[in-house]
């Protein structure tokens, strides 16, 4: 069994996942292979059993709490939208769980020609899960606490055994600890992440960021090369590279399209062998995924700690790129204003306005991992009518009534697919979005040097009934308060900005409040203490900027 566990840990698991045909099949494989559940546990859990402690998610399976990686938690959240919180997450029999894994193994064997997949079972997936935790350096006692294994002896087959090269490296000092007790490779990783973070703070352009990150990583012992590919209207475009040729990077991206999709959509790190090098694909995550950071390392086994460090670096780079983009809009003398007419059939809001004969007007947006959190006002319609429409489409993951007064009814919607989200992901700022029974109109701003043709093509390809009706050069909407906003843009993190925007647009500062902190936290998929923490810091920075700017 250890042979199959090792096989799964060295690339077999990802190929098995690619052989699943449904969201349910993929979720079952992930619950066994990344959470370590037995079939009896898979069929017993409900969405409400996932609990959050700080940034860590744990799954209550009765006699223990299993650790849930962020990517799996996201997958559970998506699948759970089709079931009630109190119903079983996967409502099938234990035997069917085993069959789903076996069927995926058969398809993987047929697709790859590797018959080892035909023998893969839920037990092998759990063994691979335990083996990976141990090889990542997790203490055996912790592994026992989060898995179904009860004795250390049961884990013995999965404990890493040092080979001749490992012993030689250790005795020759190559694996020696630094003065502070850290492995040398970890100290180097910590140092390069810290150094790059400091340099990002003073970067003045996106190209500075790209070149700095790639150059510093490629020059660090243990890393062979680095590259950055940024999301554009044409897909991923290589922006910088060091230690590797640009055409080689293009080939890596072309050969591993599935890997690229997983990293961008799930905002999670993936590793893959590229010749004699291990490639780490790190998302440049933030208010949206801005692309990939590719890092080549000579180390075959990348420790979980190093993954977390490089993941934090990717988030830093994503945030730095967002700051540069916002600053360009704030300080520009002119921007390009684009006006799109949005057809009634294009997306949820115009379809709903046409069906219910009502109007929607965008009040504010908050970028989120799952989509875009929108606050809209509407008249001549009931909340229940909008709720009923939202329940019939997967374009909306959640909708909430916020308030109702003489100006209209305020609703909060989490839109997975919308012209608003697409335009924002292309680097634009939404100026207005109004929707009526005949369709909608979106007005947005982009920097004057943006590729307008690519933006328009992406918008119209994504929403065929949308078309550009006006384009003009104008002063940015934020020109009069640009310095104050620039200071806040530099100071606030994306989480703090999201907390502040959702609190403002959601009526948290009204008296009486239109939204509680718990409701806002739920909308942003964070805990209430976390929301309070981000909001308090954001308010302090806002006041500091105001008094400093006015003094």
TrEMBL record:
Domain Bacterioopsin transcriptional activator GAF and HTH associated: start-end pairs: 333-486
Record-given protein name: Bacterio-opsin activator-like protein
A GO term for molecular function: DNA binding
InterPro entries: BAT_GAF/HTH-assoc (IPR031803), DNA_brk_join_enz (IPR011010), HTH_bacterioopsin (IPR007050), Integrase-like_cat_sf (IPR013762)
Phylogenetic classification of the source organism: Archaea, Methanobacteriati, Methanobacteriota, Stenosarchaea group, Halobacteria
Span of domain HTH bat-type: 492-543
Gene Ontology biological-process annotations: DNA integration; DNA recombination
Record has Cytoplasm as a keyword: no
Organism: Halococcus saccharolyticus DSM 5350
Xref: Pfam families: BAT, HTH_10
Key words of the record: DNA recombination, Transcription, Transcription regulation
């Amino acid at each position: 069994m250890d042979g199959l566990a090792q096989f799964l840990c060295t690339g077999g698991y990802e190929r098995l996942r690619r052989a699943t045909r449904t969201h349910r099949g993929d979720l079952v494989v992930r619950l066994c292979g990344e959470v370590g559940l037995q079939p009896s546990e898979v069929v017993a859990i409900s969405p409400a059993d996932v609990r959050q402690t700080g940034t860590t998610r744990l799954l209550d399976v009765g006699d223990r709490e299993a650790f849930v990686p962020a990517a799996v938690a996201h997958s559970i959240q998506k699948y759970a939208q089709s079931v009630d919180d109190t119903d079983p997450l996967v409502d099938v029999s234990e035997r069917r769980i085993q069959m789903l894994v076996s069927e995926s193994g058969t398809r993987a064997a047929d697709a790859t020609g590797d018959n080892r997949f035909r023998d893969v079972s839920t037990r092998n997936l759990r063994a691979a899960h335990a083996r990976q935790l141990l090889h990542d350096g997790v203490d055996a006692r912790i592994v026992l606490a989060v898995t179904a294994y009860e004795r250390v002896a049961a884990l013995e087959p999965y404990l890493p055994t040092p080979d001749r090269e490992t012993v030689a490296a250790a005795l020759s000092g190559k694996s020696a600890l630094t003065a502070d007790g850290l492995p040398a490779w970890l100290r180097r990783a910590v140092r390069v992440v810290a150094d790059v973070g400091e340099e990002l703070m003073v970067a003045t352009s996106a190209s500075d960021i790209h070149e700095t990150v790639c150059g510093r990583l490629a020059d660090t012992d243990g890393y062979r090369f680095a590259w950055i590919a940024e999301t554009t209207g044409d897909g991923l475009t290589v922006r910088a590279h060091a230690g590797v040729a640009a055409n080689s990077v293009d080939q890596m991206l072309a050969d591993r399209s599935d890997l690229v999709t997983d990293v961008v959509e799930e905002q999670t790190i993936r590793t893959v062998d590229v010749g004699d090098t291990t490639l780490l694909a790190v998302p440049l995550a933030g208010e949206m995924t801005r692309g990939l950071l590719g890092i080549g390392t000579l180390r075959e086994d990348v420790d979980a700690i190093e993954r977390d460090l490089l993941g934090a670096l990717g988030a830093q780079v994503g945030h730095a790129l967002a700051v540069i983009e916002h600053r360009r809009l704030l300080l520009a003398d002119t921007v390009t204003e684009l006006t799109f007419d949005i057809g009634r059939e294009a997306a949820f809001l115009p379809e709903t306005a046409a069906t219910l004969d009502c109007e929607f007007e965008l009040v504010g947006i908050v970028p989120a991992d799952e989509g875009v959190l929108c606050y809209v006002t509407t008249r001549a319609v009931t909340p229940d009518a909008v709720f009923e429409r939202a329940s019939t489409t997967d374009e909306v993951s959640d909708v909430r009534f916020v308030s109702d007064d003489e100006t209209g009814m305020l609703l909060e919607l989490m839109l997975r697919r919308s012209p608003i989200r697409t335009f924002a992901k292309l680097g634009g700022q939404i100026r207005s979005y109004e929707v009526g029974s005949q369709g909608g109109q979106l007005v947005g701003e982009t920097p004057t040097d943006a590729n307008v043709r690519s933006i328009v093509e992406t918008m119209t390809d994504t929403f065929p009934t949308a078309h550009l009706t006006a384009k003009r050069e104008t002063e940015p909407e934020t020109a009069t308060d640009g310095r104050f906003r620039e200071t806040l843009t530099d100071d606030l993190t994306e989480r703090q900005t999201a907390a502040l925007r959702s609190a403002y647009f959601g009526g948290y500062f009204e008296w009486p409040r239109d939204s509680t902190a718990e409701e806002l936290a739920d909308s942003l998929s964070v805990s209430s203490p976390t929301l309070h923490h981000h909001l308090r810091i954001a308010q302090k920075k806002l006041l500091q900027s105001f008094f400093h700017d006015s003094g």
